[in-house]
Amino acid sequence: MIPEDGLSEEEVMGELEKRLSLDLTFDSGKILGSMCTYPHPLAQKIVRKYMDRNLGDPGLHVGSQKIEREAIQMLGELLHLKKAHGNIVSGGTEANILAVRAFRNVSDVEEPELILPKSAHFSFLKASDLLKVKLVWAKLNKDYSVNVNDVESKISDNTIGIVGIAGTTGLGVVDDIPSLSDLALDYGIPLHVDAAFGGFVIPFAKVLGYELPDFDFKLKGVQSITIDPHKMGMAPIPAGGILFRKKKFVDSISIPAPYLAGGKVSHPMITGTRPGASAIAVWALLKHLGFNGYKEVVREAMENALWFAEQIRALKGIYLIREPMLNIVSFGAKNLKTIERALKDRGWGISAHRGYIRIVMMPHVRREHLEAFLEDLREILAT
Ligand code: 0PR
Q: With 40 labelled, which of 116, 138, 294, 370 sits at a CA distance of 20 to 30 A?
């Protein structure tokens, strides 16, 4: 109920402090299954300072709009695109929805179908429901990457696009995007790469010497990429990214809003009013950390992943689902449900998929947190 007379600031803050003590926090070291992290300190400053900027009315906030364009351009260059089109959006879900919407709109297919791996994120189910695009699921190989032959066998006159994943939600698997790109070019179908997670990992991991397939605009069949700054980019929520190779995709989803301050304004995204602070924070982090700053973050995350996988392999009663490709390690067990419950009872914030538990080596996850987790896991396995 809204109180008749307002409470004092102290009362409100005190109440919140008590109520929100139920939440797990990233600095507790207990959150091991999330793809989010504590936003970088610079990003926090920026949000506080620029929280009033609304990119929904860019004519009022011309500077913010230019910063957003530059952030998109920097992300484009990171992903080997000279001139990038797109936006900083609310997250990977919105980015994926926009890509499907653009593919549908540039096609003239009446009963549109999208081919996507069985491992795709549930945001595509939302896209399908909203956009009336039928999802055609492609099988996975034994290593959990998409089976490209199966993708090819599912192409029809109704196919408006193909999806490949660069860092699957559950296992961090990077699909064979080069082969998907070849298919896309052969059949003249656009390929969308969901690199919501991997977009801020793969470019740096490659430079560090990890063998990973190409996944970005270097491949000519790739027409759009989801890359989320609010995952490994360390930006505050909400900050997703959608990039298109060609302007025609953005044009196909742009809704005019001519009465807004800027005059010729159009909105290609789902949201109307949207946080300028998010885009400004993305710009600032890219400038501040630079390529080498992100490379160091990824170096530690990858080293933690390989070390943790090694530890898991040594334990009896659980098994590694597959060798980690990125900084995600997932393990299974016969009595997985019991293990999951015991871990959760001990306060661990893990993510339990069907058949395995996922540990994501985000920047807030330190070796000592993993050691404490393993200690608990060993105890649980011994009982
Ligand atoms: N694409 C991929 C490959 C993803 O993994 C995700 C989310 C999305 C798209 C959608 O992104 P948004 O959630 O930004 O819309 N992956 C995480 C997941 O479902 C999201 C997440 C983040 C879950 C933090 C839990 C959590 O604590 O696992």
A: 370
